[in-house]
Amino acid sequence: MRFPVLVAVLLAVIGGTAGRQSYSGYKLYSVEQNSQQQVDFLRELQQSAQDLDFWQLDRLVGSEARVLVPPAQLDYFRQLLKAQKLRHRELIHDFERVQDDHLYGTKRVTPSQGLPLNKYLRYNEMVDYINKLAKKYSSFVTVAEIGKSYEGRPIPAVTIQSPSLYKSRPNSSQPVVFVDAGIHAREWAAPAMAMYLISELVENAAQHQDLLAGLTWTIVPIANPDGYEYSHERERLWRKTRRPAGRNCVGVDGNRNYDFHWAEVGASNQPCSDTYHGEQSFSEPETRAIRDELLRLKGRCKFYLSLHTYGQYLLYPWGWTSELPEDWQKVDAVARAGARAIEEATGSTYTVGSSTNVLYAAAGGSDDYAYAVADVPISMTMELPGGGSQGFNPPPTRIEEIVKETFVGVRAMALEVARNYS
Which residues does UniProt assign to the signal peptide (predicted)? Predict the structure, then answer.
């Protein structure tokens, strides 16, 4: 770490990390949105009630919201639902009880026989795996450090190029697909998907020559390593980075920290809020690392994809307004190719549309920045499935199913980009 151990300990105490966060008595509710009035009410509630954790909320009448409610707010929350005549059901009676051993398991896996798909890897395990790939497949895989987190953890980027092309033209200017994951710490399924994408493109390269022949892939599997580790060790639902913010708060929402309509809408100016945008744009070393890589690839990067959870959405700009970009149809066509491929393969349905019109306005996001400033023509966010009654993320027994399903969609979108931008 770049700062003394004593300072780190003091910060941990200030941040309330002297022990693991308990979620005893927290309940998860599914709330139906059966009218526009109910949609608007829940959105206002999300913005005003900081103690209510909305895991899923969109603007679509007929959809369901998912809300985690702490014990102290249960009576208040139920009264609100009754007053608004909101139909609801309890999904998780006690969130602490679903924090099974696999969520905080100390067992380590040495991925010598391929990528494990039955557990959520920790940061060091991810780094070890990709470094081994780069060593074993040095003819077409490289790992570079694009920055360091606040606590000093390297942020790795894996670049994968067709073996034959890499040998003849290692600095080829062919179109680039840039993928990042894990900027929101608690969204464990996103890095799991990024790692699976790397594994497929490298260890099963022969099966994906169509993805490698026309595209170079740069993948950042864990964009917020400090927050990710903290969510494993201390606070399961931690979302932000880990740099101190304000006098007694920690962390910034990395997906509200980009310098495009920064801090205008859908983000908080309160340092303790989960959606705190930071005291200035790019205040976080983690977002600066992604920014620098996007700008380095400016002109070459044709597809930017940020992996998140959860909700089964494919979202594109704009996030700061309900207006659409001039050529939004091009991005929409790529997103719909992915959604269609997933539905045909598995029956799962993804909702496609602009971030603001499907979810809500939230300025300072990475996909808006990639599209508007880094000139990436196809830029979007993919929200993977959640865990439903088993918690925020799918249980480890479903990781393989989720990542394989998601890969079908990513593959279809990448091929669509290759056809139009090669």
Answer: 1-19
